Amino acid sequence: MMGLSMLMNYMEGQTMDLEQLRKSKKIAVLSPVAWRTPPRQYGAWETVASNIAEGLVERGWDVTLFATADSITQAKLHAVIERGYEEDPTQEAKVVECLQISEVMERAGQFDLIHNNYDFLPLTYSRLIHTPMLTTIHGFSSDNIRRVYHKYKHDSYYTSISDSDRDPELPYMATVYNGIDLSNLTVGEKAGDKLVFLGRIHPDKGVHLACETVKQARRRLVIAGIIQDEGYFNAKVKPHIDGDQISYIGPVGPVERDALFKEAFALLHLNELPERFGLVMAEANGAGVPVIAYDRGSCREVIADGKTGFLVTNVAEAVEAVKKIETIDRMACRRHVEEKFSVPTMVAAYEKVYAEIFRLEEEKTHVRY
Prior knowledge:
single chain; alpha/beta; Rossmann fold; 13 helices
């Protein structure tokens, strides 16, 4: 039977507000170690983990970021890996991955919540620790990894990054859209004249379709991003590059990205597979650049069709969309991102999830007693 003091503590826990949680709870944010957090150029998961950590610190949370030693953060930084394995050829991915994940798990008792941004492997520790874990699922890289999520579906809390990228067997707490740092994205005084592709050079991203679109639209295209599939680049993209109508400038960091968006008439995002979220679409809109995207996966959740860009189903429709880009209000694109995809908006949503997790964990404690 629950005693009076225990009952009072329970009732207090039920009414605990966010300010109390910020002052009393310690959060571990687990970031991948492929790249620095935040990344110098490419690194979507590291970008989101950074934005979560920085946004939480800004709101007064006690946060420890588990990331590479060269990471930049206002949170407490805990690192066992000097540099990301994609940036340091002496590192072996599987080795540093195990060292990174085990580090936070061995210190789980020091935290009230672990916010996992490192995919499925941390889930395999979930039955070995007492600290609750929230896993943000940044996408299913293969159907095979769903087996791990399904095994541990009741051992971690889950959020999705879009409604479209969900597994029907998992008990999600919420969809929390990724938030981007708008401080390094500025809206130019006028639209640029180039179409832009920004992202991984990979068949999934449809770079060759962007090339076809600009040729039919008689526009210029700038391609920026890391080459993840050399064979695809050489066979399907490189033959189009002439340094005039179509050029490739390599990967870009935040400063170069902002300058590139100043030159942009629109962003082409003709993804071959359903999009999970699409940070680059929000980033482009944040800089006032309209987006032309294939209507697959999360694209219709990120792009307001006819207001911040156009959703299309093939190259011919993309070409027609280019002709309508001037009907898009660029400041409306920025406002759309400020309202739905900013860091404060994302962090406020995660705070609600955290509060619910702490409430559920409190209930478990009282059930045991």
